[in-house]
Amino acid sequence: MTAMATRTPGVPVGEHVRLLEPTAAKPYYRLVYTDANGKRHYPSGGAKLSKALQRAKELDAWLSGVADATSRTLGDLVAAYVATARGRHRDKHGYLTGRDWSTNHHTTVRRNLTRAVQDLETTPVGALDRAAVDHLRSACGTHTMVKQLTSQVRMFLRWLHEQGAISDAQLALLPEWHARDVAPRFAQPEPRPARVRTARMHGQSDNFVADVDCAGHPAIDRFATELQHLARWGELAVQCAPATGLRIGEQFQLTAYDFEELADGLWVRVDWQWHTGPTRRALPKTGKRRRVPVADVTRSGYPLGTALRRRITEAKAEQAAGTNPEALLFPAPEGGMWWPGALNELLVKAAVAAGWSHTVVPELRTLRNGRKDLVPVTQMDLTWHSLRHRFARDMIDWAELTPGQLMAVGGWDSLDVVNTRYYQSGQEHTESAAAKMRRAPATEDTGFAPLRTWPAPRGTRVTRAPRTNGRPMTQRSAAAYDGESPRARRQRKNT
């Protein structure tokens, strides 16, 4: 096609977009449309006619949906909802906070809602009913996942209502509280058994982590030995976790350049955690970075400082040789960062060999060839995360850190979480009660304890103890105090 000197008015594509041909000065197609505020836009359509037409059709379809949101399908609206994380964060009541989703949360919501809407992609949003809502929030395999997916679907419905796509009645199909129970659509043939936890003491929260809820140091040493047989850095990785408190995603993305040697010793910077996205990294769980001091010798006597310095030197040498491009401290066999599934298989294998308690249950899984089959799944009673709990207990019981100090080096979000989970054991109340009970003085039993009176209901006769001015109560006053009625008192007097 010969380029023209000036652009023509263009060719209409649908109801909202016009396609302008290339010119000699600007050899590419241009799209023209007007937004809801009356502002005209001129996005590029590319150099090829076929590509420009495709972009124009997609743009017109999107503008048509914006003009009449009720005519759009659930699949289209879910795609628009999960297309960006900007400004999507809401509080527990569903109100926008002005913040963005975290990278990990955005990935989770996108996967969950995309899977949930698969059977309803062509359903018009105007036809959304209770059955469709229940279908969306039951696209999982466990009741716990139903609760998580219900929260995500509820936020999606609020967004639809704000866009004018659904009515008030449709928004009320999933109330904020007490949503009716639905069964997961992809339930496993045999549910996983619940992990056994010790009974809590009075004064402890349900989330309190006691010493018995963490792996002991002898078990950690056995785990380190077995993992060393499977990976050259196995012992160091296991010993590093309870000594620094790093989460698994924070530890297995560390490079040699995340450590710094200062006058007081070795420090590790926790700037990222792993992620399944293209960059493979995202901000840590709380969105905050931190620095953690590294002890030269751990509580169990492992020379952590020396082992880390040696591994840092090795990682830089591997980077120079090209076998470990990022100088990762704990790389996968091919030299890159681990994927969570592959690493979990390695850790479970070593933990089972170390004698850690576990349960094997059959689960229905989709294999790589697309076929579904029952496969044995090992559920550990204590996971890798229990090493982080061991770090917290050691820092409290051994290093005597305060809640603020533990929160700073451990990366917890608030003091309330730290106090509830690790410090408020209930023992302080038991000890103070014991001290008061044991020092309470002995007293002579007088045989009479004044009753405490409370406001009686209206219309109820109230009998009060007579005033004796310190003298012993007479038979008559004692009878009145015992609740003798006026009629019984007159009969007794007359007799």
Word description of this protein:
It is a single chain. With 495 residues, the chain is α+β, with helices and mostly antiparallel strands. The protein has three domains: 11-67, no CATH class; 70-171, DNA polymerase, domain 1; 211-423, Intergrase catalytic core (hpI Integrase, Chain A). Helix content is 39%, strand content 11%. The protein contains 17 helices and twelve strands. Strands 1, 2, 3, 4 and 5 form a five-stranded antiparallel β-sheet that branches. It has a three-stranded antiparallel β-sheet with strand order 6-7-10. Strands 8-9 form a two-stranded antiparallel sheet. Helix 13 packs across helix 14 (415-423). The longest helix is centred in the N-terminal third of the chain and has 20 residues, at 143-162. It is extended, with a radius of gyration of 34 Å.
Count of DSSP E strands? Answer: 12
Shape: extended
Order of helices and strands: EEEEEHHHHHHHHHEEEEEHHEEHHHHHH
Tell me, what is the CATH class of the largest domain?
Mainly Alpha
User: What is the architecture of the largest domain at the second tier of CATH?
Assistant: Orthogonal Bundle
What number of domains?
Answer: 3
- Separation of the first and last Cα atoms: 130 Å
Q: CATH topology of the largest domain, which one?
A: hpI Integrase, Chain A
CATH homology-level superfamily of the largest domain: Intergrase catalytic core
Helical region count? 17
Give short descriptive properties of this protein.
DNA polymerase, domain 1; 11% strand; alpha+beta; 495 residues; five-stranded antiparallel β-sheet; extended; three-stranded antiparallel β-sheet; hpI Integrase, Chain A; 3 domains
